[in-house]
Amino acid sequence: MTDEELDKYFHDKYTARGIIHEPPTPLSDKERVRMHEKANLRLAETGLSYLNDPANGDAKYELVNPIAGRFFISCNPRPRGITHSNFEAKLKNDPEAEVQLFFLEIVGKAPGLEKVTCCCSLGRSGSKAAATGLHGCRVCSKINHPKRMRFITH
Ligand SMILES: [Zn+2]
After folding, report:
1. Does 138 fall in a domain?
2. What is the pTM of this model?
């Protein structure tokens, strides 16, 4: 797939409202990696928009590193798509600001139809305190979750 075709596939995949079709030819390993990177960046940007929304506080953040995300279907209390992700961000315009690890949960998949249900800092990235683990999430394997049950589980 060319870069343009991959971008189009990614766009279609994330704007589809229904069944998401696989590409006509299977993605190569390299294309798969790029897709994951794009998806993780999109999640981190969603989290950042949420944090920077004046309705959610005065602090303004900038993205440091989109880390990872995991999409799953929760049947609790009804079937819906959930994504859990981690990303790193720090306060804008503050050279002394420490990099924080954030947890993001969104419900839904299509841009504009998804809803942020949790977006919170877990603490300084790389710190023992931020390595909070799964905290009851039975779907994710490498994503750190908030200590309290503030997120939707399987
Ligand atoms: Zn999870």
Report:
1. no
2. 0.84
